[in-house]
Protein 1
Amino acid sequence: MALTGEWAREWISRSVSVIAENHVELTALDRPIGDGDHGENMNRGFAAVGPKLGDQADATPGDVFKMVAMTLISTVGGAAGPLYGTAYLKAAGAVAGRDDLDGAALVALLTAARDGIVLRGKAAVGEKTMIDAWTPAVDAAALAQAAGRSELEILRAAATAAEAGAIATEPLIARKGRASYLGERAIGHRDPGAQSTALLIRAAADAAAA
Amino acid sequence: MSVGIVVVSHSDRIAVGTVELATQMAPTTRVVAAGGLDDGTLGTSFEKISAAIAVADDGGGAVILCDLGSAILTAETALDFLDDSQRQRVVIADAPIVEGTVAAAVAAETGGSIADVVAAASSASGPAAGEPGEPERDASASAAAIAARVTLVNKDGLHARPAAEFVRLASGFKAEISVNGVDAKSLLRIMSLGLGVGREVTLTAEGPDAASALDALVALVESGFGE
């Protein structure tokens, strides 16, 4: 489908489901290298988002993302709340007022989301954080858009890059967050924030393919 | 108007306990707890932090003390949602939550500005308050240092409000100043000395305004801090 408000609602609706289905796994990833609450926190946030989608029938993508941002900031309760909340808030700002998004707007949306997380968490690539999924996704999206691909292809490229980025956090030593206390003991564990990022961007691509 | 304090912790009990400790020494300062999630479980709540800022800031500003990672991230996010004028006067201090809150609250209690309160909180970082009586610096090692001895005449000695007043005055000078060997610009280190009424203390100072610093501090101690 075209990247309209309907797509945004479909994306977020799929995000609610995918987080609910994977929250046990996300928490399992967080337990050895964090405080073991990433899945529960994300699920609490997205479960609060779900019922509000019904009020968004005529909303633009920007309106939907703003609602998601405010809800996550208010309900997640861990670092993921301000991080993802800021991502959706900046994404909303990047596409404010638009009824549907072309490839350039889509790249702007993903870039703004990633930049929001960097602003909030001050992490760089290679520090074993969600940025290690976001930045490859943004780069792949920009490349696909420059090559003239469709919006769906851009989202699929971003999702595939995010998934590869999440897997690539496994050998890294953490430099941010509670995993950084562990030093080399964090090696071999996938970053849960990078994993949830990969799930959410894949949901965006699946929504566009629906 | 005065500066208020917000204590942001993952744990409601840490936040409430820290506020209790701080208000014992700063009874009229607005020190507000924002700990845990709404249901009392561990986490940081945007809503609680925003509400606490609204209570702490009466127009005179607020200083926020945080514990681990997401407490800082959530507090920063809460600041983003303040209107521009309020955001100018709400500051997150980089300081350990318990010691920083106590130091900040005492600085606020004595009428300190936002910058004074942040500086007091920051002075609480680094190695803990030190062993009482164990000199951190040896003034006699420096030929340029000058020294004065003065007796504490006020009933509380160099504790709480008098200590905070002393630190605020000392902080206004460029000179390196010490009290019985500890940094005279660190409230917690001075308080850790446990200097009560009748104790004679040695002040040393080194730097361009060392003499005026000693004059002013001796005068303050001899005045009895208004007690």
Protein 2
Amino acid sequence: MVVVQTADFDPAALYAALQARAGDAAGATVSFIGTVRDYAPGETTRSLFLDHYPGMCEREIQALCDTAAQRWRILEATVVHRVGELALGDRIVFVGVASAHRGDAFRACEYIIDALKTRAPFWKRETLTSGRAFWVRQDEADAHKTAQWDTRTPHHES
Amino acid sequence: MSGATIEVLYFAQVAEHMGTRRETLALAAPTTAAQWLADLVARCPALAPAERLKLAVNQEHVDHRATIRPGDEVAVFEPVTGG
């Protein structure tokens, strides 16, 4: 399930719905929640605005979930990503993966959030408490992490 | 005449530089993404360097060697920063 929305989400409700879809075979559920943090060194973040490409966002994230399902044994995945105005501490993204085994769930969840950061068309504009605003630059470490997944051998295929 | 145009979408900082989020541009014949981007940057120098810009054609990521054809939906943006 992939959803892009402005409203906040309820992690407990998303977890319950994920488990219900995955069924009794789901022995392991791993979830990741990203929140708005203080990005800039030396100055305090007041808020974030997230721009996005409607349609392509959902397609890219669904493609990442499909790739995860090919690489690891997972039963279901949920990704909810927020857009629009967000305040410091607000939830931005939920990634949940249900699997029979924790190893596949952990790896698939980490892959989806890593790849989302470099492939899903979202852009953050940060506003500081001083009122200064700027578009956030892509973290080279994030790009490197995603590139690593392309060369790493999945556990269950080895 | 829709076949002789492309729908162009701009996002985030690129949209700010362009002063719009969407426009219809004439495109009579297929061209490379690199050439098309060079023309766009010539029109809006604030977008430079062109090498930094990312493109999607019909909602798929493409590199600058891709071909843009009349009728395509082309999106121009900087590296993504979601998550």
Protein 3
Amino acid sequence: MSDSKIELHSASKHFTAHGKQIAALQPVSLAVGQEDFVALVGPSGCGKSTVLNLMAGLLRPSSGHITYDGRELNGANRAVGYMTQKDTLLPWRTVADNIGIALELRARYVSRKERDDRVAQMISLVGLSGFEHHYPGELSGGMRKRVALARSLIYEPETLLMDEPFGALDAQLKLVLHDELLRLTRQRQMTVVFVTHDLGEAIALADRVVVFSGRPGRVKVIKDIPLGRDRDVFRIRFTDTFCRLHEILWEELKDEVRKGTDA
Amino acid sequence: MKPALKMTIDNAQDTAAQPWHGKGMLSHPALTILGRFLILVGLLLFWQWASGSILPKFWFSSPSAVFEVLRGWVLDGSLWHHLGATLLAMSIGYIAGSTVGIVSGFLLGLAPYSARIAAPFVTALYSLPKIALAPLFVILFGIGLESKIMLVAVTVFFLLLYNTLDGIKDVDPDLAEALEVMGATRGEVIRKILVPGTLPWIFAGLRIAVRYAFTATILGELIASNSGIGFLIDYSAGQFDAAGVFAAIFILVVVSVFLTEVLTRLEASALRWKN
């Protein structure tokens, strides 16, 4: 796979807690192609978030290695936008200042005027008009998620890593943002790795779904989703292909989910 | 015993939630101020009456005598001279001590290894009651301004050093990681995450330090000095002038209330995001 954007070569991760080694991720090999939209699904604690942290360069693998654009990762991966599960908004900055922060950095600097314009665009995109000058502490969980999404989209990173970005949102807003996400990532030719526990969401968005098994995590099955790029997220759930894929993948996932709840 | 105690606390909360006196006339803000004013006047009148009748006037003075002393100090300018001396020593020591404290806090906070080497020495000096250094400073710097400045600076330095260090530890490392992934340099992470994230702690330290600085100045003046409010207290006490002592204490109360009020307001406007 020469056109792979991100590759995991038997990458594993274990942590040490109270003198005991805990395996978070068994050796995983996975390739994410350029402009791929890959969804990782699996029960909680299966190491999905660990995979994202490895791809973002925030964790080093305990064994194996990870390449981005063919080069081995060493330190934080600055080519990606990373939307973590916990929103990392800065509590002392307003919504607008949080969203625009990447454009203040020397690496991505734009003029004040352009920054204001792009922030305003993102704010209306994620439906936060009127909340520009609020502080994160004054927002609901769902609104904070939208700020975090806008913050990682604004600088148009070539790759987006997203960890259950829409978990806290209501169903309607979730669909609207799914639609926006697909439109944006297609238009800007972004590569996306999307972690979710919602199988329906994974199939509706992704070109490929990777099912993880329960703790310690490993890849159980990888399935292509032949729904095309111009899919309509509002209707796709009613198509036969969607239902069939959902059934097949649910067969793979349900044992893992059950194992997960037993543990 | 424990359950009974808990009951009491619960009851206390209930009472607080539903005031038993309801919203009577007593809750009007103007009446609150009037009430306070009446209490103050009542206390002063009692003091005036009591001194000379049930309390010896020589030791307890009286509001009118205290007022006379204050008037005298204002008229001959000695109030401004002594207040000025105290405030000058305090502010120079405060500014110097907190600046060096904050800067050292960041330096140590950003270099964890050096911090670990320095830790026992810093702790030893921190746990030393700073007032014990006052006689040393008098020997080294004389009874004038310099010895007070040093005492205040040393006291304030440690407060700000520790608050800054705690503040840095309190900053969520995930915030720094998020910015790093966006491409921030180390300098940018410090400027945009570490410094603003530590500010609430620094402000808290600065506010607490004002009281300590004030106390340290007065203590320094009480020990050895030739001017300042502490000097006025010590001098008046040396003359068995109770009215003078009370007058000087009155000035202290006014100044410290004023300082606390100013700092609370400054902090509230700088940290609007906290509420």
